[in-house]
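EF hand (Thiothrix caldifontis), 85 aa
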Amino acid sequence: MKRIIFQTLTAALLTVTSAADASTDPDFKRLDTNGDGLIAWAEYAAKKPKSGKIDPRRIFDNVDTNRDGYIDPVEFEAMKQRRKH
Ligand SMILES: [Ca+2]
Ligand SMILES: [Ca+2]
């Protein structure tokens, strides 16, 4: 019984640690519609963020710097940082 509680606590702590980035960002959450912590192209396209005349696919590929087809919280945060400058 105690072992199960310990494992649950460990899992909860790991979740808190990994959430200390853009995954808590309301903009990220808005785009991550299925809540798996990654923004897929389908999720991004469905929301069609305001991007002027720029092709949203190009924006997505720009943000997805490791080219795995998903925008993760680190990539999202890096994109926001770039936009500030
Ligand atoms: Ca998702
Ligand atoms: Ca990526």
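The chain has five helices and two strands. The chain has one domain: 21-84. ok done for today
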